[in-house]
Here is the input.
Amino acid sequence: MRRAAFAVAAGAMAVSLAACGSAKESGGGSGKSSAPKKGDDITVGLLLPENQTARYEKFDKPLIEKKVQELTGGKGKVVYANAKQDATLQNQQVDTMVTNKVDVLIVDAVDAAAIKNSVQKAKDSGIPVVAYDRLAQGPIDAYTSFDNETVGKTQGEALLKALGSKAKSGKIVMMNGSSTDPNAAQFKKGAHEVLDGKVNVGKEYDTKEWKPENANSNMEGAISALGKKKIIGVYSANDGMAGGIITALKAAGISDIPVTGQDAELAGVQRIVAGEQYMSVYKPYAPEAAAAAEMAVDLAQGKSLDSVAKDKVDSPTTKQVPSVLVPVTALTKDNIKDTVVKDGVYTIDQICTGQYKAACDKIGLK
Here is the structure.
């Protein structure tokens, strides 16, 4: 997500991060795991935040499971739980995995702050924690995600490009993600760095739980407040919300204005093909999942991860966390074939179903 089209090294990303051995929250990046050394017979606890976004069940979970199997010669196993957007449930899931003595945890937090005490419990029990996709608070040992401010910048730059000379001729609406998600704050920050001073923001929302229906309601409110003739574009932080936004725009008789997105969900890609959504951000999940799995296995086995952790990231509670940040790409109708199709995320047949066939043909997606 940014406009210098960062190509992603989809190569399995030789990951071998550095773990923080201290249970103290300032102890990120000490380079050693507190877990005893083990062989390949390990158990990885995987906790993902929700199942409304297609990526988690379709990509992240199977990719991590496959990589753990590969790294352990088929001896390691993954125990999985999905929190269904419930932070309290996710804390209970962590507690259960701690009780069951998993060797390492990979946690994509529903609420980065609410997970803090559960992360501490895991560390106190000698279980290292990899923060996945979202920077969880508490004494995490490692972190992998995408360059989230760059994601926001990429979205903002794409929106400016689509607006062109009309950028200040009306109002844009900004539909940010959930206030409980630290990624959402980073997306918003990056977008504002690009957009501030170049567009007029008429309405801006932090969308509860990232839900499309909440984005739909917010967009209806923005249309009512601003007037449908004044809105020239919408910054949407992800594809799910873009779907809800576009439904509201259609209902109001608004068309042909650029709407951004993120995640390259199939429905989002199809809306791009159809000209309803301008762009998405393609985040290649394979290298992110590979990084998380390799960190987790190395941490469980008591190995250092320094050779692969090229970045250090600070959370509100833990400094200098060894991190792998995966680059992203702006996805438009012009590069669908060279991104999600080339990487095997979707086939052309999956994208170009009946109602999208003519639009696919028009843009040369055959």
Remarks:
- The two ends are 25 Å apart (CA to CA).
- DSSP finds twelve helices and twelve strands in the chain.
- The longest strand covers residues 43-48.
- Residues 203 and 222 are 6 Å apart (CA to CA).
